[in-house]
Amino acid sequence: MAGLVVKSLSSPEEVRPFKDGMGKLELVDLASGGVGRATFQPGWRWSEHVKPIAGTDSCLASHVGYVISGQMTIRMDDGEQVTLGPGDYMRCPPGHDAWIVGDEPCVVIDWQGFVDYAKG
């Protein structure tokens, strides 16, 4: 059995900036997988600020996350849409766009989809 492992998103092992300074992704890697904290600035939209990095028509990452602050709307490729806010937990399959709602940055912790997210 492995020993206790402690890592902090306050000292990430990797930082990936989004296009045009619209936010960043901070990552730590655990044996069980990566964990990321993304900060999305007001005006951020996946199709404008990550699509050029990902090179796909929509986000193909599957996310399991928790919203700490701010609001984000997610629209699935099939048209289903939801707005998330502080305290919301979500599971989001591949095939979506997302954008920030309002004037506050949105901070999301993700246990699944950020390992390859915004990676050029």
Characteristic terms for this protein:
6-stranded antiparallel beta sheet, single chain, Cupin_2, about 45% strand, about 120 residues, 3-stranded antiparallel beta sheet, mainly beta, Jelly Rolls
Describe the structure.
- It holds the Pfam family Cupin_2.
- InterPro entries: Cupin_2, RmlC-like_jellyroll, RmlC_Cupin_sf.
- Residues 63-110 form the Cupin type-2 domain.
- This is Cupin domain-containing protein.
- The chain is mainly β.
- The protein has a single domain, classed as Jelly Rolls, CATH 2.60.120.10.
- The chain is built from 2 helices and 9 strands; from the N terminus they run E-E-E-H-H-E-E-E-E-E-E.
- It has helices at 46-49, 51-54, and strands at residues 14-17, 23-30, 33-40, 63-69, 71-76, 81-84, 89-92, 96-101, 106-110.
- The strands form 2 sheets. Strands 1-2-3-9-4-7 form a 6-stranded antiparallel beta sheet, with no helix packed on it.
- Strand 2 (23-30) and strand 3 (33-40) form a beta hairpin.
- The mean pLDDT is 90.
